[in-house]
Amino acid sequence: MEQQKEGIQNLNIKLIVAVLLTGGFVSILNQTLMATAIPHIMEDFGITENTAQWLTTIFMLVNGVMIPITAFLIETFTTRKLFISAMSIFTIGSVVCAVSPTFGVLIFGRVIQASGAGIMLPLMMTVFFTIFPIEKRGAAMGLVGLVISFAPAIGPTLSGYVVQNYPWRVLFYIIIPIALIDILFAYFAMKNVTKQTFPKVDILSIILSSIGFGGLLYGFSSAGDYGWQSIYVIGSIIIGAISLTIFILRQFKLTQPILEFRVFKNKTFTITTIIGMIVFMGLIGSETILPIYMQRMAGFTPLESGIMIMPGAILMGIMSPITGRIFDKIGARWLTITGLTLMTVTTFLFTNLSTSTSLTYLTIVFGIRMFGMSMVMMPVTTAGLNSLSLNLIPHGTAMNNTMRQVAASIGTAILVTVMTSAALDTGADATPSESIHGVNIAFYVATGLSLIGLVLSFLLKGTTPAEERASQQAKEEANT
């Protein structure tokens, strides 16, 4: 242990952090670029909202499937080799997307992208929790929050400008050189900081988790097109639920599980993971629905829909490092309660949209909503992982990221399905007001989810990271 600490101290931490943050930034930027471009892609390929939202949900679903495998990959391969491989896969996917002749090929490219991106965020968080002591993790995770927020700040605005003036494929040509430069820097700067234990991978678990998460997502996504009574919808959800149940039960029997569900024995980790899932559903869901509402129902340009998102995302980015430092001093409880209160109120303010709702109103409400999210996202993640012992952190990171990505993909699918199903008319002659009714109902559902998160936040402990560390040390001493 002392040798490991000494090795960490000798690392050029700033270079490693810069390479990891760039990789995280480019993968999230790629995700948020699609939000404003979806209406144009719908027109180019002649597809519906329910089909187009797969561009977002398939990316998050594959992310969710890849993340559990990442815990195995981190313990099998060196940090440097794994990061360069992940970025290379992501870059290949970006090239496929850029040249895709059909919507099917575009989706295939998104799957390849997500296979690489799904490794990067858990790897980044695991490395950060390895190289930073517990009392500095809040500030370190604040940097992660800055990247996760800054990418959505420029993503939709850049996307809006590009699709208004150039073909949407240019978005991927912007991503490719950034990814290639990061691979080059990683080759020289990245060092090996994670420990290799060479666990065995359980192929059946990977198959079961893929069928489970995929079945649930396909079922919820297809409900808007086929209706909730459809055999495709009901069958997919049942198959997904059964596969997922078998997958979870199997993990308890394996000596080296793909996902370590025993981390949920920790109450703090469980509560913070559920809150993180709710917040991520609200973030990705709204960033998918609002551009569709603005461009297809309210007459705004792609650039205006991107500009609407930008101030809130910048505010969230600015606040993330500040929130991280506040968390290091006071813990997560009051930050989370305040943030979720703001998020619940502002989500409710989106339930009365119309064709005359102003850009100023949308921008201010979205900005305050993102300000609230900045108080929740990284603090609950850090608090949950801080409550785990060091050997469980890779599993906690994998579980936390998996649950958030899967929740966001299924949550977005549900919200888009509610939006299309609750519209008063979805035919060719439907008026914008009839379509907007569905958007308002979707935000009522999102408000209910935020309220559940707010109630759960009162169950969090009010301990600081320093107190958490003292508690962990006491437990370790008692065990030895």
Q: Taking Cα atoms only, what radius of gyration do you get, to the nearest Å?
A: 21 Å
Q: How many structural domains?
A: 2
Given the C-alpha coordinates, what overall shape results? Answer: globular
Average pLDDT rating: 83
The CATH topology of the largest domain: Growth Hormone, Chain: A
Assigned CATH superfamily of the largest domain: MFS general substrate transporter like domains
Helix percentage range: over 70%
- Percent of residues in beta strands? under 5%
* Spans where pLDDT lies below 50 across 5 or more residues: 1-10
Number of helices: 18
**CATH C-level of the largest domain:** Mainly Alpha
Protein name: MDR family MFS transporter
Pfam families: MFS_1
Domain Major facilitator superfamily (MFS) profile: 16-465
Transmembrane segments: 12-34, 54-74, 86-108, 114-132, 139-158, 170-189, 201-220, 226-249, 269-294, 306-327, 334-353, 359-385, 406-424, 436-460
